[in-house]
């Protein structure tokens, strides 16, 4: 192995030693700053290092959104001449609710593959590849979650050594944390992103209405109180996020193709977009239809 090849593989060490080539520097910076359009959260171009929090009542299709985002990540850009538009990367899903339905993921992935296949069959080789890229960990309580976060650096490094690049971290939670736990979570995520740049998407259940208690200061100044009319929604922000997505349940079911479907409104709060999307959840898939519902 010559010096150039060793430097290409050296990464951060090569940069510290001062031997990183300009080509490698530009390629590394370009990879870190490249934007991602992640359906159904494609209203805003995202970057590695962004933290998004999806909040809404339970149920409001938050987990379904995470599954669809995961599928878009594990699918390849192109496979056997068929363009799937995926990211070709692995996903790490942290299940804090302990009710994740792997069959739902399998059904939605199979449907996506069959949509792109001209003969309407599911390519088993592609299916197996995508499922291998879906990494899963279950945390039964907040302290297990903290332990998992603290050990993630070593797991991600081990995966990277085996050629597995994790660029998406999904955190599905239903319960609120104690303030002390939340502070530790924020700090651990910040430290993790400094070493392993990833896109982080977390869910949080909230209570709509004036009965939900307010908080003036949370998590080292990262929290805010928000009251929005007409719902008078109040929530506590725990994640150190630049972006916020609100998911609101609609009371009326939608009839589509003679099938009962639940539909929800997905609205960006930060940055404020003003163009809500309609999310339709069916038995085997989640559809995001862009439409102005304001």
UniProtKB/TrEMBL annotation:
One of its GO terms (cellular component) is Rad51B-Rad51C-Rad51D-XRCC2 complex. One of its GO terms (biological process) is double-strand break repair via homologous recombination. InterPro entries: P-loop_NTPase, RecA_ATP-bd, XRCC2. One of its GO terms (molecular function) is ATP-dependent DNA damage sensor activity. Gene3D superfamilies: P-loop containing nucleotide triphosphate hydrolases. Residues 26-172 form the RecA family profile domain. Coiled coil: none annotated. PROSITE patterns: RECA_2. This is RecA family profile 1 domain-containing protein.
């Amino acid at each position: 192995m010559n010096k150039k090849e060793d430097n290409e593989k050296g990464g951060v060490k090569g940069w510290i030693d001062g031997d990183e080539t300009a080509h490698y520097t530009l390629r590394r910076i370009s990879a870190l700053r490249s934007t991602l359009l992640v359906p159904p959260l494609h209203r805003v171009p995202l970057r590695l290092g962004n933290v998004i929090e999806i909040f809404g009542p339970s149920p409001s299709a938050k987990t379904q959104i995470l599954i669809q985002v995961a599928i878009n990540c594990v699918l390849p850009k192109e496979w056997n001449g068929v363009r799937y538009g995926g990211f070709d990367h692995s996903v790490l899903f942290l299940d804090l609710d302990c009710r994740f339905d792997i069959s739902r993921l399998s059904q939605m992935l199979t449907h996506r593959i069959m949509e792109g296949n001209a003969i309407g069959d599911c390519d088993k080789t592609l299916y197996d590849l995508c499922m291998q890229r879906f990494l899963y960990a279950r945390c039964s309580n907040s302290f297990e979650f903290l332990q998992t976060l603290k050990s993630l650096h070593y797991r991600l490094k081990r995966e990277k050594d085996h050629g597995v690049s994790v660029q998406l971290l999904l955190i599905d939670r239903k319960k609120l944390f104690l303030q002390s736990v939340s502070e530790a979570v924020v700090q651990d995520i910040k430290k993790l992103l400094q070493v392993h740049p990833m896109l982080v998407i977390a869910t949080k259940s909230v209570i709509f209405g004036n009965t939900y208690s307010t908080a003036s200061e949370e998590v080292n100044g990262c929290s805010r109180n928000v009251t929005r009319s007409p719902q008078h929604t109040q929530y506590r922000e725990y994640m150190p996020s630049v972006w916020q997505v609100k998911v609101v349940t609609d009371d009326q079911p939608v009839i589509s193709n003679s099938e009962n479907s639940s539909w929800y409104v997905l609205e960006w709060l930060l940055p404020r977009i003003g163009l809500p999307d309609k999310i339709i959840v069916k038995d085997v898939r989640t559809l995001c239809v862009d439409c102005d519902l304001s």
